[in-house]
Design a protein that fits this description.
By secondary structure, the protein is α+β, with helices and mostly antiparallel strands. The protein has one domain (8-96). It has three helices and four strands, in the order βββαβαα. The protein has a four-stranded antiparallel β-sheet. The longest helix has 11 residues, at 72-82.
Length: 101
């Protein structure tokens, strides 16, 4: 069964010099799985820690709880806005349509 609130979407940087892709941000729904991290039970955003990245440590360990979305559909426009995609509504019109039923 697919749950609309159990999701993760992110932005990765495929850097030629790096051995792996670097995750710049992830917008997650509540997914639980780790009782030591209470934020995993609510919608949250992981961001690349800039200070660590300046030391060549690439972890998206700046985690912030959010009330701005609760489902995948609600998170899409916020994710596109965070990524700075200009005219996102013209590329992804369904992400900006209000579902009535």
């Amino acid at each position: 069964m697919m749950l609309g609130e159990d999701f993760s979407m992110g932005l990765r940087w495929k850097c030629r010099e790096a051995e792996r892709e670097i995750i710049l941000c992830r917008f997650n729904g509540p997914h639980g799985g780790n009782r030591a991290i209470p934020m995993h039970f609510v919608p949250h955003i992981h961001l690349l820690n800039i200070e660590d990245a300046q030391e060549d440590l690439f972890h998206e360990n700046d985690v912030h709880e959010t009330e701005r979305y609760h489902t995948f559909e609600e998170a899409i426009p916020l994710f596109l806005e965070y990524c700075g995609l200009k005219d996102a509504a013209s590329y992804f019109p369904s992400a900006y349509e209000t579902v009535l039923f």
